[in-house]
Specification:
Elements (H helix, E strand, L loop, with lengths): L1 E4 L3 E5 L3 E6 L12 H15 L7 E9 L3 E3 L4 E10 L7 H6 L5 H17 L4 H4 L4 H15 L9 H17 L1 H9 L3 E3 L9 E2 L5 E2 L11 E3 H14 L3 H15 L4 H21 L9 H22 L3
Antiparallel strand pairs: 1-2, 2-3, 3-6, 4-5, 4-6, 7-10, 8-9
Helix pairs in contact: 3-9, 5-6, 5-10, 6-11, 8-9, 8-10, 10-11
């Protein structure tokens, strides 16, 4: 058995299955502090991810303690785990891209899956609020507040101010565009974390690890989901695949207005990646070499965000 840890999970890998347990943490935007909450979010993660990977996300299982600790054992339930089918790691899209094994046929299939997923994803008045100018601005203001401390570390003061001015100008000048996106039903219960590291290019493509812990990170314009993967392809210097993905998605979804907000959401996704990677600088568990690598990676994402903002 192999153990992988993230800041919020323990992931146990066996030959055929993966067991994911949530850590008892509370970061404000995420609260797994009690057993009941961890069970609730395990069930929610199962339900959300079955939308795109029904054959991979199997069940939520209890972890019991008596003389020994055992999954589905006897005695007190001390934890819960999400049980998943294990897929071959070499089929992760990020690795496939590095090996130049991703072609337009695969991208076209992916675009079709995502367009179909978005067409069926839930929408209602509550979800629509997350596409409103008010919420969009709150998200951006949070980004700028949280990256102030990284000015001249991972983002230059010039780029910070330029992106901020460009975003605020776009929001001010394009109020009607955001209203139109809401009225045309483009605000949905999306995936929230749609990048190549969360896609298995197996026979049945699996887009996994949708965000379950905070609805605000998942309820969005479908363009934000699409922009994340397109930005990720741009970042990996696969611009032709990125452009083809957008072209294919628009053809399948018939969402011709998506391109009007695409760079806005690409900028958002690149900026958030830069911000999250910058957080590693302050993590006491990250060593010096990893922090140096994090600084370079965050700088690259912020530079990409700046490029997108030039085209708003």
């Amino acid at each position: 058995m192999e153990l992988i840890q993230t800041h919020i999970s323990f992931v146990f890998l066996t030959k055929n299955f993966v067991y994911k347990m949530k850590k008892a943490v509370n970061f404000g935007f995420l609260d797994f502090s009690t057993l009941d909450k961890r069970h609730f979010y395990c069930v929610k993660e199962l339900e959300l991810n079955r939308r795109l990977c029904p054959d991979v996300y199997l069940e939520v299982v209890p972890v019991n303690k008596s003389d020994i600790i055992k999954i589905k054992g006897s005695g007190e339930t001390v934890e819960y785990a999400l049980k998943m089918k294990r897929l071959p790691q070499e089929k992760i899209m990020t690795l496939q891209l590095k090996e130049n094994k991703v072609d337009k046929t695969t991208i076209n299939t992916l675009a079709k899956i995502i367009a179909n997923f978005h067409s069926k994803a839930q929408t209602n008045p509550e979800i629509n609020e997350y596409g409103s100018l008010k919420i969009v601005k709150i998200n951006w203001d949070e980004n700028f507040d949280q990256t102030q401390k990284y000015i001249n570390q991972t983002i230059s003061k010039t780029d910070f101010q330029f992106i901020q001015n460009q975003i605020n100008s776009f929001i001010e000048c394009k109020k009607e565009l955001f209203d139109t996106r809401i009225k045309s039903g483009k605000i949905r219960d999306c995936h929230g974390d749609m990048h190549s590291g969360n896609i298995f290019l197996t026979e049945n493509i699996c887009i996994f690890d949708a965000i379950e812990f905070n609805d605000r990170f998942r309820y969005s314009d479908v363009a934000s989901d699409v922009a994340f993967l397109a930005m990720d392809l741009d970042f990996q210097e696969k611009q032709q695949l990125s452009n083809y993905f957008i072209k294919s998605y628009v053809a399948y979804s018939e969402d011709c207005d998506l391109k009007l907000v695409l760079n806005f959401y690409k900028c958002y996704r690149a900026y958030v990646r830069g911000k999250v990677i910058s957080f590693r600088i302050d993590d006491p568990n990250v060593n010096v070499e990893e922090k140096i690598a994090a600084i370079k990676e965050a700088q690259a994402y912020f530079k990409l965000a700046s490029e997108y903002s030039k085209n708003l």
